Predict the 3D structure of the following.
Amino acid sequence: MIVPTTELFKHAYGKYAVGAYNINNLEQAMGLFRGNIDSKAPFIVQISKGSRTYTDKSMLEAILRAADKIFADAIFAVHLDHGNEETCMDCIASGFYSSVMIDASEKPFEDNVAATRRVVEAAHKKGIVVEAELGQLGGVEEDIQVAEGHAHLTDPEQAKEFIKRSGCDSLACAIGTSHGAYKFSGSQGIHFEILEAIQKLVPGFPLVMHGSSSVPKEEVVRINKAGGKLGDAKGVDENQFAKAAKLGVTKVNIDTDGRLVWTRVHREFFLSHPEKFDLRDPGKIFMAEYAKFIAHKNQKLGSAGQVDDVRVLLKK
Ligand code: G3H
Ligand code: 13P
Ligand code: ZN
């Protein structure tokens, strides 16, 4: 069942974080739903601007509608990841999305407030909620590349003002993580003190952690052994999700890790079966492996085992 993102946040706040996973195709969708059913977790399906144009935006919607029927027990929200104003308005008009993210974080503060405010006004009229971003993460984000050293961490006082003036419903904060497989190039780590300060200034307000893939060493080693060439890839320690959740992080975005599972499965499969060419053979392995990965992540996020409780909350 597709549910409002705010309902998931209400239940999770201060206790656990909801996993927000990006999808681009049907194999990812099948693995994602299976993993969440197996671990009894509520979840958020993320669709990026890039994934909407990979085939056609209506293709992913159709896949999700079908998944909703196949996995009738699933409780999930559908979210636009890193939208610009135009994409946000398109998703709001479609009526399919539970929430949208307007990412105007590269703009000056006043312009970010104004763009977010415009999206909030359109979204709220339709009962859709809005995630905004303040500060800049390092790494690759859609067509924008931010060098890690130039990433601007979120200023808590500014965050308070931004939330009040923009009317956004959740905020993505730059706390030292970055997108992609090469995080924490220096000795920096997650800036929990920023989360703590924002939580004190805006108690109860849902925060979002982007760039949260953990880029497991074993995964990188297996990919490279099977012909890959990933350099010094590094990610977020998944044991830190629980600490972030206590400080108000209700949504944790994970995309890169799923791509690594896909790459490992397909590289290993074709290396050991050079004679094969049926895409369904590695596809089946990927769906099972991705489901296992999702169930594991949900354990770390604390969302595993919460779905029945959320169902009760939704009926009230
Ligand atoms: O933060 C970006 C997400 O990982 C989505 O990536 O824009 O390549 O679909 P994408
Ligand atoms: P990763 O690249 O760490 O998976 O981050 C994904 C993300 O933040 C999507 O918005
Ligand atoms: Zn992101």
User: Anything to note?
Assistant: Residues 22, 48, 50-51, 81-82, 141-142, 179, 255 surround glyceraldehyde-3-phosphate (ligand 1) (CB under 6 Å). The mean pLDDT is 95. The chain is about 50% helix and 15% strand. The first strand starts at residue 18 and ends at 22.
